[in-house]
Write a structure and sequence with these properties.
The chain is an alpha+beta fold. Strands 1, 2, 3, 4, 5, 6, 7, 8 and 9 form a nine-stranded mixed β-sheet that branches. It is globular, with a radius of gyration of 16 Å.
Length: 182
């Protein structure tokens, strides 16, 4: 599962909104997502560093991301399309970080995060699109999702991606496959 060639690109619409287009669904399943496979996939990013274009903040991928992303309280409540969306969003994490915007700060209120989020939390908005396939396996359209990127500001002064949450499908923005160039 690790080191799959990612088919991902960023497209900016006429309003200047950027969206990460993920052209593959690698985490499939009729009933539920295999979060262990997602966790293994995420381990390839550990140690990577990305910059948020909007704020110029540097975001690190720490060793805690794969476990938190796949086993957080938020992940446990996800079902159906939103669970599959979060699982497949893992393919576009570098780009989701880079296009994130709307930085908001929150103080740390939990004792258990005194070291890993000593200087608090940041939330950024980001968006991604996943393909919807027709019965013959061709991409029919893309569903667009808004998401919050949760970043922890750690004791070492660095900012680390902690999780993505509040996944919401946009209803008004369905991109037809001919609208997207790969």
């Amino acid at each position: 599962m690790v080191n799959i060639k990612r088919k991902v690109n960023v497209i900016e619409d006429i309003d200047g909104k950027k969206t990460v287009f993920i052209h593959d669904i690698i985490f499939k399943g009729k009933k539920s997502v295999n979060w262990d496979d997602v966790e293994k996939y995420l381990k390839q990013y550990v140690g990577d560093i990305y910059t948020i274009d909007d704020s110029n903040d540097t975001v690190y991928i720490g060793t805690d991301l794969p476990d938190e992303y796949t086993h957080s309280n938020y992940t446990h409540i996800l079902r159906g399309a939103n669970a599959k969306a979060k699982a497949n969003a893992a393919q576009g994490l570098p780009e989701l970080i880079e296009i994130a915007a709307g930085k908001k700060y929150t103080e740390n209120h939990k004792e258990k995060h005194m070291e890993d989020a000593m200087y608090g939390w940041y939330r950024y908005e980001s968006r991604f699109a996943l393909p919807v396939f027709n019965e013959v396996g061709e991409i029919e359209r893309y569903n667009v999702f808004n998401v919050i990127m949760v970043i922890r500001h750690a004791k070492d002064g660095k900012m680390y991606l902690y999780d993505i949450m509040n996944i919401k499908k946009e209803t008004s923005n369905l991109f037809q496959s001919e609208d997207i160039t790969q």
